[in-house]
TrEMBL record:
Gene3D superfamilies referenced in this protein's UniProt entry, alphabetically: Jelly Rolls (2.60.120.10)
Name under which the protein is recorded: Cupin domain-containing protein
Highest taxon listed in the record's lineage: Bacteria
Alphabetized InterPro entries for the sequence: Cupin_2 (IPR013096), HNL-like_cupin (IPR047263), RmlC-like_jellyroll (IPR014710), RmlC_Cupin_sf (IPR011051)
Residue ranges constituting the Cupin type-2 domain according to the UniProt record: 39-102
């Protein structure tokens, strides 16, 4: 058994996120499981860049209300206690609404080379505004 008493909060890198986003790592990929998990907190309007995961990603919303958007324009509005699953290879983004913070536990399975995430360009303000309008609020 390993008891980890705390992990320091870090500001998310601006080359992968828009707005103020904070990370607390929970688990980093290591054999044999290669689980990656983190508590991620988004202030209103903050979001990830477009990205994908080689083995998919599961997002469990712990607080607030968030959006998860895909390249084909699908948008999920998710609240605390809800889960959104993004399949392997699907380009997507996630973040808070424009008025409410959102926190989630992000979980994925990496491999020997890392977490299997491919980071892409930022979600534009126009794409974000369109997602807000299409979300059922």
């Amino acid at each position: 058994m390993e008891h980890i008493t705390s992990t320091p909060t870090a500001k998310a890198p601006s080359e992968r996120f828009t707005g103020d986003v904070y990370l607390n790592p929970i688990e980093t990929p290591s054999a044999p499981a290669h689980l990656v998990a983190a508590l991620v907190r988004f202030t209103p309007g903050a979001r990830t860049n477009w990205h994908s995961h080689v083995k998919g990603q599961t997002l469990y919303i712990t607080d607030g209300v968030g959006l998860v958007g895909t390249r084909d324009g699908d948008v999920a509005l998710a609240s605390a206690g809800e889960t959104v699953k993004c399949p392997a290879g699907e380009e997507h983004w996630h973040g808070a609404t424009d008025t409410t913070l959102m926190a989630h536990i992000a979980m994925l399975v990496g491999d020997e080379s890392g977490d299997g995430t491919t980071w892409l360009e930022p979600v534009t303000d126009e794409q974000y505004a369109t997602a807000l309008k299409s979300a059922d609020r």
